[in-house]
Structures are given as C-alpha cells and as structure tokens.
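User: Structure tokens for this complex, please. No commentary.
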Amino acid sequence: MTGAVVTALRALLGDGGVLTERHDVARYETGWRYGSGRAFAVALPATPQQVADVLRACAEHGVRVQPLGANTGLVGASNPDATGEQLVLSLERLNATIDVDPIDAVAVVDAGVLLSQLQAALEPHGLWFPIDLGADPQIGGMVVTNTGGTRLLRYGDVRRNLLGIEVALPDGTLVERLQRLRKNNTGLDFKQLFVGTSGAYGVVTRATLQLGPLPRQRATAFVAAGDGQAVLDLLASLTRAVGDVLTAFEVISHDALEITLRRGHNLRTPFRGELPAYAALVELASTFGPERLDLQAALEEALVAHAEGDPRGGIVDVLIGDGEDFWAIRHQITESVREEGRVLAFDVAVPRARLAEFTEAVRAALAQAYPFVRLCDYGHWGDGGSHLNLVWDRSAAPADEASFWSALQTLVYDLCVHGFDGSFSAEHGVGPHNHAFYRRYVPAPVQRAARALKEHFDPQRRLSHRYPD
Ligand code: 2HG
Ligand code: ZN
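Assistant:
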C-alpha cells in the first residue's frame, strides 16, 4: 500500500518531493516539546495544487496524513502517530509567495512562509503582521493553532488578523477564499473553521493576512512588584493612563526569572539586588516618532504616578532600560526552564482580574500535595494568559511518570476551568497533550458540532488526528 502511494507521489512531486530514507524522515517525527511517532514517508509539495493532489492521492490509496509546519508547536500536534502508517505532509517548500498590497495593507502568503520571512518582506513597506512570538513558525501553522503571543493585548490573535484562506480538503478539493475584505457579512465565516482546529478539517495552503503599520518607536520598562495583585493593580492603572499605546504587558515570576538569568545566554540582569516576586515587562508602541510623542516620558510618568499613588505600595522598583535586553530575558524562559529538570507546561487563561488569586491557589495546592515541584509561572497577563511551567528533579518524583503528569494536569486544570472559569488551552491549541481535557471540559454540544464537521470534511478520518474527534 505505501509503495504504491510513494510511486504516485513521486509522479506528482518528482523524486526530490518525497523522502523515504529513515535518516531523512526522522527529523519530521518528533515534536519540539511533546510527542514522537513514525512516518513511512514525507511529501514536500511546493504549490497549493500539489498539496491538494497529495491529499487526493492519499485518499485514493487509503493513506492517513499528518500535516507539519515548522514544528514549533507545544502540544504534540505536529508529529505522526506511532503506527508508521502515516505520511507527513510538510509545507516547508510551499513558501514562494508573499504578495503585499500596501494600500489594502494585506498580504497573501503561502502557508510554508516563516513568520520571520514575512516580517522581513513587510518591513520595506513600513508594515508588519502584528503577531509576535519567541518561536519562528510557518504561517499555515499559525493559522491552524491560532497563535497569540506577546502583543495579543493590543493586536489580537491570528483569528482577528485573518481575512481569507485557501485550504486543501482531505478529498483533494482546493477551496480558494483568499478575499481581501475587511467587511464580509454573508453568513458562515468559512475560514474560521480552520483556525485553531489543528488542521483536522483541511490543510491551509495560503492565507490573506491583515497587516498593521510598523511602529516607529517603542518604550519599555521592567517593573518589579511585591506580589501578583500589585501587578494587576499596575495593569489597571496603565490601561487607564496609556491604554491606547500599551502593546505588551508580560509578567515573569521570581522562579522563572531566577532560572532564566542563571541559564540563559548573554543576558544582563537589570535588577538591583534581590529578584522580585514578580516583574512586569511593559511596552508602549506608536507609529508617531519621538519628535511628536515622547513615549518613554509618557511611560515613566505613568509608572511614577502609579507607584506614588498606590496605597498598597506593591511596586518595588521601576527599571527603565534597553527594551532588547528585557525582551531577551522574556524570550529565553522556555529554553532555560527546559534545562532545569523535568517540565510539565500549562498554557492557561483566567479572567485577568483573577490571575494572582488563581496562581496562588495553584501554588498552595502544589505545596501541599507535591512540595518537590517548583512553580515557574510567567506569561501574558495583559490578556489573561499564563504559562505555569512545573519543574522538578526526576529522582524526587513518583516512578510512574504518566500517572503523576495526569494527576498534576487534573489538579491545575480543574482549578483553572472549574474554580476560576478559565481555559485549559489559552494559545497553544488542543493537541494530543490536551485531548483528555478537551473531553473533560468542552461542553458535549460543542464536541458534537466539532465531530459533525469532521464527519463532513473527513469521513474516512484520513487527516490529522491531532484534534479530538
Ligand atoms: C511563551 O509565551 C510561549 O513564551 C511558550 O507561549 C510558553 O514554554 C511555554 O510553555
Ligand atoms: Zn505564550
């Protein structure tokens, strides 16, 4: 069976478009954080029509397909399963088109284009795609996971910046809806079915993205706070004072800071003396130049006014400095924590006002049940998102790691979803890592609707099983 489909794919894509040697296929089989499997081959289509043709060939040969972007996902959704019966469909060669229209302020982009390539192509036009991530994913991967990132507070997620889509369906049909319309109120918003659903209904081949003007100046500060509530008070105060230009409000806890500053590369600590309980990285940005609007002064003024008027005295220090240095710390947390020991990561959201209370509830529950687990929390408090990375030394943990993980996940997710009206996946998607919790928390009528869509688009269940069915 696989021999016949490989022959058919070679006829479609040429010899260079299909990999079957173990040493070539291996690098497509393991997820960045979770999951690894086995594929019998990798197909590398270079045009949208080739993607559709690959899917049609797979349908004819009864072969299951796992689409793969830049493999930066964090929920185990990008690698094949363990059967060895799946074909990996890599989008990495589908990267020729970045069609920019500066008047519409849109770009039509091939799915395999990297975010960094897109931003570099937009810069000469004074434009950017306003989704900022530490990783460098492909555009198609960003669409199917609906990535958020560090500036969601101001610009929103991919869903909010997507105008059109082209998608190859599991039967090999190519559906082109690459409209450049900001207004289009004609019933079902078809493209949104493919956003955040991990490629379960089709493979995104191109996207029409709404662009923004590239800011001409940014002002950045690190604010050291005595506790989480002080961070939230600061957020409320900055929203009132400079909310129009507030583009990031990222928060890092003491333990996440400590590990990152110790393990990170070429980082300069901006803190004087002891690390604070929390640090908030605040950024303002504007298309006005500093001659028209002094953002740095506006930021400093707002911070000083807040610190002086704060009855709780929660602000410990205000550090004004090089934004690049501050962002370098923020973007090295994931890698640094990963080197520290065993890590179980959580990407959750709760209403912003309850972030401090929620985090303390998790901290207390962990201290009681698993005192050897260290809570390194950080994330996008400006939009209610938090990454709770739990770290421990393997020798201290129970031998049955799978059950231990599941107990930790149930503890944190139950608190988040039931106790704080939160979400068990804020921005990384569902993926196998969260399947069991999708079933546990997503209401039955919603799960039924998703299943009906799967039945409609992919009745043979050939495409990505990375979204629960
Ligand atoms: C971030 O905000 C990313 O840095 C990764 O979403 C978070 O390590 C993680 O889980
Ligand atoms: Zn994040």
